[in-house]
Request: fold
Amino acid sequence: MDEPLMQPEAEQRVVYPPPPNIHWAVLFAAQFVIAIIAIIFAPKAWWGLVSNLAFDLWAIYLCLWIRRLEPAAMSIFFCAAYVALQLVFTVPYGPEPMNQSLTIFGVILALLAVVIWIVTIYVVRAELHYHYNVREPIGLYLSGVMTFFFSFLYFQYHLYKIAQLRERYGDRPFFYQGGAPLDLPESEA
Reply:
């Protein structure tokens, strides 16, 4: 009649894939090197396209990583739309005799690409905030102004530090405050 008391099961922690462990300066240097290689080896008409696509590859990779964290993440769709618009807008060797309607169409595409880029970086920012403040709460804050000016390099600056802290702390919780971890007391850990 006396049943032994059941021990409550330990709370299962979800282990998310770690953020990309690449320093932001490496990304910047890689983009610079790819731009130099494009200038040396590609025809002049392709320089902008090649150097832009090099940076876009990292943006797509980061959006796919976010998609692994949250399958409902929408940033990859905005990023893909931006890359598609960029390809359409910057494809060289278009019609030579430019007329006014093609010029207006090009300007509209360029403005649309800028709007979609801004939407993309702020959707990525919102998804990173949601993940690192709700699902894996460590207290990430990303500045709106820094996001606007430095976008994916700024994201990678923080993601690299988070990756380093995850390596250092392992499964122990930590609080990320602007790049410096705050050790939690043992009672909270």
In short: The chain has a mean pLDDT of 85. The beta strands are 175-177, 180-182. The longest strand covers residues 175-177. Residues 24-92+100-180 form one domain.
